Amino acid sequence: MATKKKQSGVFHRLLTYAIKYKWNMLSGFLFVLVTTAVTTGNTLLIRYYIDNHIKDGLTRIAFVVLALNFGMVIVRAVTSYLSEYLFAKVAYATVRDLRQAAFDNIQDLGMAYFDQTPAGAIVSRLTNDTQAVADMFATVFSSFMKSAFIFVATLMAMFSLSWQLTLLVLLFLPVIWGSVALYRYYSQELVAMTRSKLSEINVKLSESIEGMRIIQAFRQEERLSQEFEDINGEHMVYANRSINVNSFFLRPAMSLLKILAYALILTYFGLNWQTSTFSAGLIYAFIQYVSQLFDPLIEVTQNYATLQTSMIAANRVFEMIDREDYEPSQINQNLTITRGDVEFKNVSFSYDGKKDVLKNISFKVNKGETIAFVGSTGSGKSSIINLFMRFYEYSRGQILIDGQDIKNYSQQELRQQTGLVLQDPFLYHGTIASNIQMYQEISRQEVEDAARFVDAHGFIAALPQGYDNPVTERGTTYSSGQRQLLAFARTMATEPKILILDEATANIDSETEEIIQNSLRKMRQGRTTIAIAHRLSTIQDANCIYVLDKGEIIEAGTHEELLALNGTYHKMYQLQAGMMAK
After folding, report:
1. Helix intervals (H) in 19-141
2. Could you tell me which of 452, 519, 444 has the C-alpha nearest to residue 481?
3. Residues contacting residue 315 through CB under 8 Å, at least 6 positions apart
4. Which parts of the sequence belong to the ABC transmembrane type-1 domain (predicted)?
5. pLDDT digits (tens, 9 = 90+) for 559-573
6. Percent of residues, the chain, with pLDDT higher than 70
C-alpha cells in the first residue's frame, strides 16, 4: 500500500510534467477565480435585493438585478467551460509526454525485462494507467482547484455575514475530514487491486488473441473463457468493494452532513428570530452558502476515488519510466568492424546469477567461415546468440570481433554489421518494401536487389501490387517460406559482415527448403556465419559444428569428423535420418 508521502511525491512529479504547459494552467486558474467570484457575488446580490427591494415589487431595480443574475450565470457557465477545457488540454498533453517517456525508456530496456513482463501488462500501463492520469488532470485537478477557491471564498463571505453561524457550520468539518481519512484508509488497497486485476485482464486478452490459432486447434476455448471469467470476476469483486466504500464514506455521508447543517441553521434561526437581527436575505444567503460550502466538499470527496486511482496508476507508469535494467552499454571507441572475425574466450553466463547456462565457451570463426551449434533444448545455443547480440550482459570471459572486445564497439556499428535471422520472422504492418527497408536509408533499387539476391523477387513480382503489396500484422497472409525469404532480404539489404542464423530453417517445409538453402549459401559467402541448427542436414557444410550439452561444448568438428566420433552428434544424426526415412 502506497504511503501518503509516496503519493505526495507522485503528485509533485506529475506537476513537473504539467508545468511545461503553465500558461494554459494559469489561464485555467484565472477562469476558476472568475467562476468563484461570480458564484459568491451572485448570492450577495440576491441577498441585497431580498433585504432592500423585494417589498417594492417589479420595479426597475428588480429587472436590473434579474439581468445581473442572468449575466452572472452566463459568465459562470462560460468560465467553467473554459477552465475545464484548458485543464483538459494540459491533461492530455501531460499524458502524451508520460506515454512518450515510458515508451522511449522501454526501447532501451534489456531483453530480461521483456522475458519477465507480459506484453499485456506493458500495454495496460501505457494505455489504461496513463488514461487514469488524464482523468485526474482533466476532471479532478479542475474540480479540486475550483472547489478550493469556492470553499475559501464562501467561508469569507459567511464570516462577513455572521461569524456565530459560520462557527456552527464549521463544527461539521472535522467529521468530513474524518470520513475522507477513513475512506482513504479502506479504499487504497482496493483501488490498487482493481488496477492490478485490470492489468491481468489485458494480459489474458493479449495472450489469447495472439495464440488464437493454438487455442482453437487444441479446443481450449472453454478453458480460456473460464480463466478470463475468473479474472474478470475478481476485478468485479474488487470494483464492487470500492463502490461500497465510496457509497458509504463519500457522497451519501456528505449529503447527510449537508442536511444536518441545514437543520442546525434553521433551528438556530427558529429559536432566535425574535431576539436576533437576522433578515430574510441573510437567512437566504446562509442557506445558499451552506450549499456552496458542502457541494465542493461533496464533489472533492466524490472525485477522491478518481484521485486515488490516478495516483496508483501514475506510480505504475513512473515505475516503468524509472526502470534502469537497460540493455548492455557499449564503451564506443569509434571502432569499425572490417572483417568480422568472431572469437569467444572462456565465456560463462547465468540469467539468474545462480545457475550457469553457459560454461567456459570458447570458439573462433573467421571471415568467410561458417560454424554451427547443435544440441537439445536448453543446452545454451540461443544464449550464445543473446550474448553476441548484446541482449544480455556477461561478466566472465571475453567476446572479440576482429581482435577487439565486443564492448568497445558502438551499438550502431555492432547492429549494422550483424545480420540476425530468427526462426519465426516478424513482419510489420505495412508493405513488402517497407518490411525489407525497415525505414533505413535504403533506396527502392537496393530493396529489390536484396530480394533478388535471396531469391525472393520471384514470388514478390507475382503479387498483385508487387513490392507495394500490403503486409498484415505478423505477415500471416504469407507462407512461412515467404516470410523467411523476406527476413533474409531485410538482413541482406544492410550488407552485414556477420550473419547470425537462429534456427532459420526450422519451420520451413521440404519443398521450400531447397530455395531457402540456396539463399543461405549465397548469404554466407564472404561473411562470418554463426548458425543454430535444428536440422542437421542444413549445416553439413559448416567449417565446424559444436555440440552443446548443459551449457558446455562436448564435441566439435566437421560433419564427417563428428560422425566418426560415434558420439552425441552421431546419435542425433541417426535419429533425424530415421525420422526422415519414416
Report:
1. 22-52, 60-108, 111-116, 119-124, 130-135
2. 519
3. 2, 6, 7, 10
4. 28-309
5. 999 999 999 999 988
6. 91
Indicate the pTM of the whole model: 0.70
Query: Tell me: the pLDDT tens digits for 341-376?
Result: 999 999 999 988 888 999 999 999 999 999 999 988
User: Which residues on adjacent β-strands are paired with residue 421?
Assistant: 501
Catalogue the long-range contacts made by 23-30 (C-beta closer than 8 Å, 24 or more residues apart). 24/86, 24/87, 24/89, 24/90, 24/93, 25/86, 25/87, 25/90, 27/82, 27/86, 28/82, 28/83, 28/86, 28/87, 28/90, 28/142, 28/145, 29/83, 29/145
C-alpha angle with apex 294: 289 to 295, nearest 5 degrees? 95
Going along the chain from its start, the domains and CATH numbers come out as: 9-322 (1.20.1560.10), 330-412+539-582 (3.40.50.300)
Cβ atoms < 10 Å from Cβ of 504 = 27
Question: Is beta strand 396-401 parallel, antiparallel or unpaired with respect to 404-405?
Answer: antiparallel
Specify the DSSP element, H or E, that contains 155. Answer: helix 142-161
Q: Tell me, what's the pLDDT at 405?
A: 93
Cα separation, 158 vs 149, whole angstroms: 14
Alpha-carbon distance values, 490 to 111, 199, 433, 436 (Å)? 22, 35, 9, 4
User: Angle, nearest 10°, between helix axes 22-52 and 142-161?
Assistant: 30
Q: Taking 80 as the threshold, does the pLDDT of residue 549 lie above it?
A: yes
Q: What pLDDT sits at residue 1?
A: 45
Backbone angles phi, psi at 9, to 5 degrees: -65, -40
Whole-angstrom Cα distance, residue 298 to residue 258? 9
Which residue carries 560463462 as its cell? Answer: 348
DSSP 351: S
Closest CA to 523 of 545, 544, 501, 492: 492
Judged by average pLDDT, the poorest of 71-85, 179-193, 527-541 is 179-193
Q: How far apart are CA 368 and CA 134, in angstroms?
A: 56
Q: Report the chain's mean pLDDT, rounded to a whole number.
A: 83
Helix axes 60-108, 280-322, angle to 10 degrees: 10
Q: Which amino acid is at 345?
A: K
The residue count for the chain: 582
What single DSSP character describes residue 127? I
- Whether residue 201 has pLDDT greater than 70: yes
At 238, the pLDDT band (50, 70, 90 cuts) reads confident
* CA gap 339, 206 in Å, rounded: 43
- SS3 assignment, position 276: coil
Q: How far apart are the first and last CA of the chain?
A: 61
Q: Where are the beta strands (DSSP E) in 225-384?
A: 342-350, 356-365, 370-375
Q: Collapsing DSSP states into helix, strand and coil, what is residue 532?
A: strand
